[in-house]
Design goal:
The complex is a heterodimer of chains A (481) and B (483).
Chain A: E1 3-13, H1 53-65, E2 69-70, E3 73-74, E4 77-80, E5 90-93, E6 100-109, E7 112-125, E8 129-133, E9 144-148, E10 155-161, H2 168-185, E11 197-206, E12 216-221, H3 224-243, E13 251-256, E14 261-267, E15 277-278, E16 285-286, H4 289-297, H5 303-312, H6 317-324, H7 327-339, H8 343-361, H9 372-383, H10 389-402, H11 406-412, H12 421-434, H13 436-443, H14 449-460, H15 467-480
Parallel strand pairs in A: 12-13
Antiparallel strand pairs in A: 1-10, 1-11, 2-6, 3-16, 4-5, 4-15, 6-7, 7-10, 8-9, 11-12, 13-14
Chain B: H1 4-12, H2 18-36, E1 39-41, H3 44-54, E2 67-71, H4 98-105, E3 109-114, H5 148-155, E4 161-165, H6 172-178, E5 181-184, E6 205-209, H7 212-222, E7 252-256, H8 257-260, H9 266-282, E8 285-289, H10 297-312, H11 331-342, H12 345-358, H13 364-387, E9 390-394, H14 410-415, H15 421-426, E10 430-438, E11 441-448, H16 454-465
Parallel strand pairs in B: 2-3, 2-4, 7-8, 7-9
Antiparallel strand pairs in B: 1-3, 4-6, 5-6, 5-10, 9-11, 10-11
Helix pairs in contact in B: 5-6, 7-16, 10-12, 10-13
The chains are: A alpha+beta (481), B alpha/beta (483).
Family (chain A): Belongs to the GatB/GatE family. GatB subfamily.
Pfam families (chain A): GatB_N, GatB_Yqey
GO biological process, one term (chain A): glutaminyl-tRNAGln biosynthesis via transamidation
């Protein structure tokens, strides 16, 4: 047997306002190089770190949400290595006493629950960025390199799983679920393309139960898709080696996106000795029960809980996922649900009318300024036949684009359903006399032409009439001919 | 050559203005510098600016118009700060250290940056990339280190007070060698923000002066919580001047047998004999105590301090500031050449020692064990201070030695700090007081007290100085031919 055994190390940038150890902003994208820096995050002589309390709170929240034990006592350590993007020559991280330990995430994989255990979560600072100029896009191949420290010092949490993942798909699902949880907590944007969520994967092949194979570590995975691809490639590569009767070498491998393969970066022998030791510039981190309870109370309902609740409303798993995958949308759904009982109908309005609008305009739900009461009122008017569905749709669009109150539009423009039969009969008579060709066709037995005539009537009423009523009245009139 | 109280009086009586007082010190500097090299730079332009800025400030500020010299590992905005290292030869800091900021806010004038052993690593001030400082009492001898410049300038009267830093004795040893007072405060009392780190868990800034009162006045300004230093104590600081002059009758003084006899030279012991008579006159009782773990203090210190230093000095890599060797062909050789040429040999020795001690497979045996012994030393001091108020010892086991005498033997050099190192490991405060002279060479005595009891320590030292006062004893300018 060849069973893949995968563990992930995920780095997530925390969306605090300021960096982990200084008061520089965490905004670092699209800024001129080295403008979002200070002596502290540049590692000038004489500077000292002061820990950002919010970042500690965010990390604890992540731990609580991932079912971890939160350490009452933890500390920072220095990870020592030389690299030009590391201003102090060491990274302030956590080594043997991380903030959070022993958690898990439950995933739904093909309808079954799969538990992936979390080994630890710790806090650390991000490094700067290198820009390589010249022939290659790696430091060793370039003519020269430039350093930008705008990103240096941004708070990161590193989340390390146990080797509980057994397929590339599970790995992707884990990472997606993790991102979703971080987003629900509001502690990270989780944007892989922008590098605010980064993932390294450890992978080995198990050939007999209870015995682990030699693992490799894959770096430079920049999207969910490439995580899956890189793991698929690496599994195949390792199995090939084993099939040849050879041995996998323990090494770090780089995912080459362009050529869709992993390439060797460095072997175990070349691995660095980071000379960890306790950071003498920072006192230990003490977390009180009081602090834990306070943070616990701030944690919103998480995706797993929400899924359960929506499934109980008899929404389909696909529909549930549509809601759960966007917290803002899901929050709105819940708010509307409190004043409107029909979950399925509500979901259909949201997924059909709202999501299509978002897709067309490349917007996210959180960009919308939409009031749940007005939205529900509109649906209820349709339910009660006070307005027609087309009218509701049109008014909703105008509400979304121009922020006009839909109820005001309806009243001002008289868009309620027209129930006055004699008024409709007048219009029908007009339509019949103005469309003699269609009427002739109808007489000849082309019964489907009635849809065209209905359309004409609806146009005249600006959609305010009930389709069924119009159709009945029209048939009555035509039959009279 | 005056005390702070005397300078204050000059201003009050309008006998001279700030400019004139500062100039009188600059005059002294001009006389003495060719012989002792205590200063690395005198920022003349900046001094004028500081004097001008002072015009709009209240003359009632505690340090109004007081010239002060600052060790060149404490950052001064717009004034070059080199750590006596080639690697920071042209480094101009973009900010003031917290202590410097506080001194300026309280009216002090920064008149110069003083020489030191490179990155404060050394006991003789010979490890400076810009030449050694010499002892004003005998310019063939060292002033002690690493804050040799800050001690020598106060000793020679080039400045009334100065700041140094003390990681294993770097304030107290030079104070002892040059016949001035030097205080190492409790770890965490004075902000380290802007002090170039050598060993973060041991480093502490402290003042040099000629009277205990001057030390107390200066400490009052620089001590106290700093939000920029997470290791600085959050507690309110006491008034350090209040206890000065109060009786210390019946205080108990502990004499640790481990620090008095073994390895202490005859000359030092003989000179310090007098102090026991002084103790009697002060009305204090003497008790012999034992601190058995001190035997391990030196190796523990050299493991912890070098380990932290190896990490603290990693930032000098030629990438962001300071010296870079531009002949390097690739990244690794840039690191190697920059650090190889930029650091002096003692600094490199300690980086290598520390790197080794932290390496995989050695960490438990060295660093971890050292932190455990350190804790024992601390506990022993805590226990001792339940029995005694003050612990006294020689500051240095030897007299100021000659330049070149110990520099080739690192172990001999390291042993110079045997009396002062335990204090840093424990984190307690200690002061070195001039106690006497042997053949016109100063000898210091060290008083230690419990954590954050600088008020008591200064009260005791003040009482001592009433009997043993060398504040008006100055070295004489050497003959020209001796240069």
């Amino acid at each position: 047997m060849y069973k893949p055994v995968i563990g992930l190390e995920v780095h997530a940038q925390l969306s605090t306002k300021t960096k982990l150890f200084c008061s520089c902003s965490t905004e670092h994208e699209n800024l001129p190089p080295n403008t979002n820096v200070c002596p502290i995050c540049m590692g000038f002589p004489g500077v000292l770190p002061v820990v950002n309390k919010k970042a500690v709170e965010y990390a604890i929240k992540a731990g609580l949400a991932l079912n971890c034990e939160i350490s009452n006592y933890s500390k920072f350590d220095r990870k020592n290595y030389f690299y030009p993007d590391l201003p102090k020559g060491y990274q302030i991280s956590q080594y043997d006493l991380p903030l959070c330990r022993n958690g898990y995430i439950d995933l739904y994989v093909d309808g079954e629950i799969k538990r992936v255990r979390i080994k630890r979560i710790h806090l650390e600072e991000d490094a700067g960025k290198l820009l390589h100029i010249g022939s290659g896009d790696r430091l060793s191949e370039s003519d020269y390199s430039l350093v930008d420290f705008n990103r240096a010092g941004i708070p990161l949490i590193e989340i390390v799983t146990e080797p509980d993942i057994n397929s590339p798909k599970e790995a992707r699902l884990f990472l997606q679920e993790l991102r979703l949880i971080l987003r629900y907590l509001g502690i990270s944007s989780g944007d892989m393309e922008k590098g605010s969520l980064r993932c390294d994967a450890n992978i080995s092949i198990q050939t007999e139960e209870g015995k682990f194979g030699t693992r490799t570590e894959i770096k430079n995975v920049n999207s969910f898709f490439s995580l899956e691809k890189a793991l698929e490639y690496e599994i195949e590569r390792q199995i090939e080696i084993l099939k040849r009767g050879e041995e996998v070498i323990q090494e770090t491998r780089h995912w080459d996106e362009k050529n869709q393969k992993t390439v060797s970066l460095r072997s175990k022998e070349e691995a660095e000795d980071y000379r960890y030791f306790p950071e003498p510039d920072l006192p230990p981190l003490m977390v009180t029960e009081e602090m834990k309870n306070k943070l616990k109370s701030e944690i919103p309902e998480l995706p797993a809980k929400r899924r359960e609740r929506y499934l109980a409303l008899e929404l389909s798993p696909v529909d549930v996922e549509i809601l759960v995958s966007d917290k803002d949308l899901s929050d709105f759904f819940d708010k509307a649900l409190r004043i409107y009982g029909n979950a399925k109908n509500l979901h259909s309005w949201l997924s059909v009318e709202i999501l299509s609008y978002l897709n067309e305009n490349k917007l996210e739900f959180k960009d919308l300024d939409i009031d749940s009461e007005r939205f529900v009122k509109l649906i209820e008017m349709v339910d009660k036949n006070e307005i027609t569905r087309p009218v509701a749709k049109e008014v909703l669009r105008r509400y979304l684009t121009k922020k006009e109150d839909p109820l005001v539009i309806i009243e001002r423009e008289g868009l309620r359903v027209v129930s006055d039969t004699s008024y409709l009969q007048d219009i029908i008579k007009n339509v019949i006399s103005n469309n003699s060709k269609a009427v002739e066709d109808w007489k000849k037995g082309k019964k489907q032409v009635i849809n065209f005539l209905v359309g004409q009537v609806m146009k005249e009423t600006r959609g305010r009439a009930s389709l069924d009523v119009v159709k009945n009245l029209l048939e009555e009139e035509l039959n009279k001919l | 050559m005056r005390t702070l109280r005397e300078i204050k009086k000059i201003y009050e009586n309008k006998e001279a203005n700030v400019k004139e007082v500062v100039e009188s010190y600059l005059e002294k500097i001009k006389e003495w510098e060719p012989y002792i090299n205590a200063f690395l730079h005198i920022p003349y332009e900046d001094i004028e600016k500081q004097i001008k800025e002072l015009e709009s400030k209240s003359p009632n500020l505690p340090l109004y118009g007081i010239p002060i010299a600052i060790k060149d590992n404490i950052l001064t905005k717009n004034i070059k700060t080199t750590c006596a290292s080639k690697i920071l030869e042209n480094f101009i800091p973009p900010y003031d250290a917290t202590v410097v900021k506080r001194l300026k806010e309280n009216g002090a004038i920064i008149i110069g940056k003083t020489n030191l052993d490179e990155f404060a690593m050394g006991s003789s001030c010979e490890n400076s990339a810009f030449g050694p400082t010499k002892n004003p009492w005998d310019i063939e001898r060292v002033p002690g280190g690493s804050s040799g410049g800050s001690a020598a300038c106060v000793s020679a009267g080039e400045a009334p007070i100065s700041l140094g830093s003390d990681t294993g004795g770097s304030i107290r040893l030079p104070a002892s060698f040059t016949g001035v007072i030097g205080l190492k405060p409790t770890y965490g009392l004075v902000s380290r923000f802007g002090l170039v780190a050598f060993a973060s868990s041991l480093d502490q800034i402290g003042p040099f002066g000629r009277t205990v009162e001057d030390i107390a006045i200066t400490l009052q300004i620089i001590a106290g919580h700093d939000p920029m230093d997470s290791t600085s104590s959050p507690y309110e600081i006491p008034n350090y001047l209040e206890g000065l002059g109060k009786s210390v009758k019946n205080w108990r003084v502990g004499i640790p047998k481990e620090l008095w006899y073994k390895g202490v030279s005859e000359e030092v012991l003989k000179t310090l004999e007098n102090s026991f008579g002084v103790f009697k006159e002060m009305g204090v009782t003497i008790e012999e105590i034992s601190l058995p773990s001190l035997e391990y203090a030196l190796p523990v210190y050299y493991i912890i301090s070098t380990s932290e230093a190896s990490s603290n000095l990693a930032r000098y890599d030629g990438v962001k500031y300071g010296y870079r060797d531009f002949t390097a062909e690739d990244l690794i050789s840039m690191y190697k050449q920059t650090r190889g040429k930029g650091f002096g040999s003692e600094v490199k020795r300690r980086i290598i020692l520390g790197t080794y001690a932290l390496s995989a497979g050695y960490y438990d045996a060295y660093y971890l064990k050292a932190t455990k012994v350190r804790r024992l030393i601390r506990i022993e001091f805590e226990e001792a201070f339940k029995k005694v108020d003050i612990i006294a010892s020689p500051t240095s086991p030897v007299l100021p030695f000659k330049l070149g005498e110990r520099i080739s033997d690192p172990l001999q050099m390291y042993l110079t700090d045997i009396m002062t190192i335990p204090v840093n490991l424990a984190g307690i405060p200690a002061i070195s007081m001039p106690a006497g002279f042997y053949n016109n060479l100063p000898v210091g005595i060290q008083f230690m007290s419990s954590f954050f009891t600088e008020d008591k320590l200064l009260q005791f030292a003040y009482a001592y100085q009433q009997f043993v006062d060398f504040s008006k004893k100055y070295p004489t300018l050497p003959n020209k031919e001796r240069v």
